[in-house]
Amino acid sequence: MRSFKIVVTGPFSAGKTTFIKSISEIAIVSTERAISDSTRRVKAETTVAMDFGRITISKDIVLYLFGTPGQERFDFMWQILSEGMLGYILMLDASRPETFAEGRRILEFFGTLSDAPYVVGATRVPEGDHSQVIEKIREELNIDGDIQIIPCNALEKEDVKKVLLGLLYDILKTLDK
Ligand SMILES: Nc1nc2c(ncn2[C@@H]2O[C@H](COP(=O)(O)OP(=O)(O)OP(=O)(O)O)[C@@H](O)[C@H]2O)c(=O)[nH]1
Ligand SMILES: [Mg+2]
User: Fold this and answer.
1) What's the pLDDT tens digit per position in 113-163?
2) What residue ranges do the domains of the chain occupy?
3) Taking each helix axis from N to C terminus, what angle separates 16-23 and 157-176, rounded to the nearest 10 degrees?
4) Is-contact 16 59, C-beta < 8 A?
5) Dist. CA 17 → ligand 2 center (Å)
6) CATH class of 2-176
7) Ligand 1 within 6 A of 16 CB?
């Protein structure tokens, strides 16, 4: 049995907790707390320390998922959670381009912590032609052409699985080297 630690990160309210909740086979351990400041306009609760979930991919592979907080004031947790990770997912709300700069900052920070592979899970991608918004994300976050940007409705288990398998593929490639 091989276990993989995977971190799910991204800007505030990108869908990180939802992503883990949708796929985890154990009740997720979540540290959501009521929001008291102005970001409350966006939603009522935010992750303050971490989310934890688990998914068995096959009889040989289990993934442990660690979700980070999105609010910048909790960014000390990013470093703690990234210890020993084999890959990470940057969740990004494609309908809020004003969060892309923060996404880029998070990627740059994770890049200094680890050489592990990552993929981008893009939530709220408009129906129809994805390519335009995907290209915009690639450009604004300065993401190499070989990094996968995968549209994903975090509320849908099948979509979440697609993102995880995309990342797993990249992880296995690096492990085989
Ligand atoms: N339409 C749509 N809504 C989503 C999606 N993912 C999450 N949501 C909704 O967006 C809101 C924020 O989702 P969360 O999972 O709490 O986001 P988060 O990234 O964990 O947020 P923080 O921990 O506060 O940074 C919730 O109301 C979700 O139901 C998605 O893929 N599509
Ligand atoms: Mg959260």
Assistant:
1) 999 999 999 999 988 878 999 999 999 999 999 999 999 999 999 999 999
2) 2-176
3) 90
4) no
5) 4
6) alpha beta
7) yes
